[in-house]
Amino acid sequence: MTTIDTEPLSSAPVPFASAAASAGPAHVTVPVAYDGILLAGFGGPEGQDDVIPFLRNVTRGRGIPDERLEEVAHHYRHFGGVSPINAQNRALKAALEAELARRGIDLPVYWGNRNWAPYLSEAVTEAATAGDTTLLAIATSAYSSFSSCRQYREDYARVLTETGLGDRVTIDKVRQFFDHPGFVAPFVAGVTDAVRGIVEEGVAAERIAILFSTHSIPTADAQRSGPRDVDFGPGGAYQAQHEAVAAYVMAQVVAAIPDAAATPWELVFQSRSGPASQPWLEPDVCDVIAELPGRGAEAVVVVPVGFVSDHMEVLWDLDTEAVEAAEEAGLRVVRAPTPGVDPAYVAGLVDLVEERLQGLPVADRPHVTDLGPWFDVCRPGCCENVRAGFKPAAAGMAP
After folding, report:
1. Cα(339)–Cα(181) distance, rounded to whole angstroms?
2. Cβ–Cβ < 8 Å for 268, 284
3. pLDDT in tens, the chain (399 residues)
4. Range list of H helices, the chain
5. How many C-beta atoms surround the C-beta of residue 197 within 10 A?
6. Does domain 7-177+342-364 have CATH number 2.40.50.140?
7. Same fold, 7-177+342-364 and 181-335
């Protein structure tokens, strides 16, 4: 196993960063001449033979035996062993390239994954070979936590070290985009359409429950999400960001459908994978769905607000398990769409690229909640992994 040399990291507050970001400003407000975009994905199997090797990659270092991995593998095997996530990222890469070309921005997009081919190491090596050494990363995750932000940053640092490219390739990242209007707009449209459609079927707005669902994470990790010097509440920045986005979405729905002011909503969680003894964020989406008839609900709209595309956690945990729970409860159920390659979302990601190319002032950066605009350069101690502590990470200040 490759050991990352941490010695060079003490020479700069932000390792592996562009000159503009290396001193650690929260927001980089000077133009940076990036020459490539690194699209960083999670990765997923593309056949039955890939499933267990992929899950070994996801759980590397935790010593989980294959028998336990098979408990998760059946989700993938149900769909022929193929996760939709790679196809979705290919589509997103193509959409980004088209939008960049439309705006006259001549930047190549290199795509690499954390857990399956094409790997991040391949993408970074390809970029360096082409002479593109000042990279701006877009991770396919909008919120702040270890698994949704810092782990990607640790992967950037690991890849630059393992490939020996850390002395000539830099990787910055766009800010977490949970409250960028381009990311949020598809959810506003989806929830509005779902509520309007259910009301037209004769269900009163107050009889519709809106459940905003996101991936559960260990409570201890949630509490450490975001910068350490800000109190975001018991769920840290991760939960606070989701709640703020959900509140904004509902405000827009009410503006379009005034009767929806009486529609109850809440943030719920899904896809828990830890031992029962370890506290994770709750309540679970299916548990809440089972309670809804007792609250007077006749219909439920499930909103995958924590996800950028219809990958396995959406297809299995929501479209399969949550839908089954709703049907068992006798509820009309609609699942709102994820951003995917919605033009507003794609345009928003390119807006984030332009933001850094231009060094856009903070006051000019669009955001729809009071938590934004989020940081370009992650703050010291941000999003610690409780189990493993801090490892070297790009695009943020060293702890």
Report:
1. 11
2. yes
3. 233 333 333 456 999 999 999 999 999 999 999 999 999 999 999 999 999 999 999 988 777 898 889 888 988 999 999 999 999 999 999 999 999 999 999 999 999 999 999 999 999 999 999 999 999 999 999 999 999 999 999 999 999 999 999 999 999 999 999 999 999 999 999 999 999 999 999 999 999 999 999 999 999 999 999 999 899 999 999 999 999 999 999 999 999 999 999 999 999 999 998 778 899 999 999 999 999 999 999 999 999 999 999 999 999 999 999 999 999 999 999 999 999 999 999 999 999 999 999 999 999 999 999 999 999 999 999 999 988 899 999 999 998
4. 51-58, 66-77, 85-102, 120-129, 151-162, 181-200, 219-223, 236-256, 285-291, 312-315, 323-328, 343-358
5. 14
6. no
7. yes
> What tokens does 353 get?
């690229």
Would you state the structure tokens that stand for residue 269, as one six-digit string? 């969680």
Q: What are the boundaries of each domain within the chain? A: 7-177+342-364, 181-335
Site of tokens 């941490």: 6
pTM over 0.90: yes
Q: Does domain 181-335 have CATH number 3.40.50.1400?
A: yes
Q: Which amino acid is at 45?
A: P
